[in-house]
Recover the amino acids of this structure.
């Protein structure tokens, strides 16, 4: 991940990009979920350090179209406000940060980070049964912040920020309600002084033509069978996934695609066979399968891309039984989660996508959800062929 985010820094390009260090102090509060006996929490305190690069390289096409963003890695440490129940969170998050209004003297920036967390305390049946939010020591971590520059001098930039932090293990270990926080941030960005500050071009021209691709992907998902908060202590099961998609790459940095996905849930199959469900037992493999049509976007960042998908289930017969076993709070929630799936992940490409290679291979990881409720966490191996 580090290699991808910090690529394109050799030779002449290295002199054009700009390294910076940004420590921050954050304070906030955990947002209680719908549980009536949600544990009480005091203020949440956090320290964060960004090690990043301001992408000033004008020869790199994707940096132009993302308005010369910052990319890097955040190192995040936080108390949660109830050490006995929630402990301490330590996280590493690759991120990208965009200036929202380039012409403003005191600019606003949007920062998005996706990575992994470690919690010193998590759910335990006898020692910590109140923590239904974090069911395992290792989780996904997601952060979204908006910053406002409040003071700038050569080599230093003070910023105020407000943001949202989320942690979830992606349904790999129950319970998994997820932990959400609202945070305020005060940070100071330090970088090398420049005699001639970087000023991005006002207008970008590109002669890059559209490219067309076909991609095939094999994934392996990991989950526990159940709802987000029960049953506890189940076995880890696999989800076997194959996807095929067609895509259009615009201006070398943005891809829109559509495709079909087949999934086989081993947890569904085991339940059908073990319980001898009459409605499904005649064709257990077929009834444990899922066929989905999806559309998606990929945002290329050199060797890395952000992969977002929205799907509609054409075939998922066992989900009817699943909803009987683990009913949702409302009928609308049940219908939406039976029909709609979402996916968010990161891919690491063997060849820099800015070169538009004929063949490319990637390795990825993602979280798949039914609308907003995690279904499983997966790793993927994919191949992309550029038709023209």
């Amino acid at each position: 991940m580090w290699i991808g985010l910090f690529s394109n820094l050799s030779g002449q390009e290295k002199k054009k990009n700009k390294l910076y260090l940004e420590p921050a102090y954050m304070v906030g509060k955990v947002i209680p979920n719908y549980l009536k006996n949600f544990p009480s929490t005091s203020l949440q305190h956090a320290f964060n350090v960004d090690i990043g690069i301001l992408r000033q390289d004008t020869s790199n096409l994707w940096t132009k179209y993302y308005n010369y963003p910052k990319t890097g890695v955040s190192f995040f440490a936080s108390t949660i406000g109830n050490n006995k129940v929630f402990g301490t969170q330590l996280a590493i998050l690759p991120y990208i940060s965009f200036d929202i209004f380039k012409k403003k003297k005191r600019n606003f920036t949007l920062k998005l980070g996706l990575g992994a967390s470690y919690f010193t305390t998590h759910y335990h049946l006898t020692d910590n049964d109140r923590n239904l939010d974090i069911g395992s020591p290792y989780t996904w971590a997601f952060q979204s912040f908006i910053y406002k520059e409040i003071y700038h001098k050569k080599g230093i930039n003070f910023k105020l920020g407000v943001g949202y932090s989320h942690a979830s293990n992606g349904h790999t270990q129950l319970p998994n309600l997820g932990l959400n926080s609202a945070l305020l941030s005060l940070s100071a960005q330090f970088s090398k002084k420049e005699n001639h500050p970087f000023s991005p071009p006002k207008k970008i021209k590109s002669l890059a033509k559209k490219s067309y691709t076909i991609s095939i992907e094999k994934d392996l998902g990991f989950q526990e069978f159940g709802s987000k908060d029960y049953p506890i202590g189940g076995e880890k099961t696999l989800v076997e996934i194959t996807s095929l998609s067609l895509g259009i790459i615009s201006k070398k940095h943005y891809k829109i695609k559509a495709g079909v996905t087949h999934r086989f849930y081993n947890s569904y199959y085991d339940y059908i066979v073990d319980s001898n469900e009459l409605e499904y037992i005649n064709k257990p493999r077929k009834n444990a399968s899922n066929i989905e049509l999806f559309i998606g976007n990929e945002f290329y960042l050199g060797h890395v891309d952000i992969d977002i998908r929205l799907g509609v289930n054409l075939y998922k017969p066992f989900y009817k039984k699943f909803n009987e076993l683990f009913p949702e709070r409302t009928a609308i929630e049940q219908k939406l989660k039976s029909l709609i799936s979402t996916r968010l992940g990161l891919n690491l490409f063997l060849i820099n996508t800015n070169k538009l290679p004929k063949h490319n291979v990637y390795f990825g990881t993602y979280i798949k959800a039914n609308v907003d409720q995690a279904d499983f966490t997966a790793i993927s191996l994919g191949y992309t062929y550029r038709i023209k």
Summary: The two ends are 28 Å apart (CA to CA). Helices lie at 2-5, 12-16, 61-65, 266-275, 284-287, 319-325, 331-339. The first helix runs from residue 2 to 5.
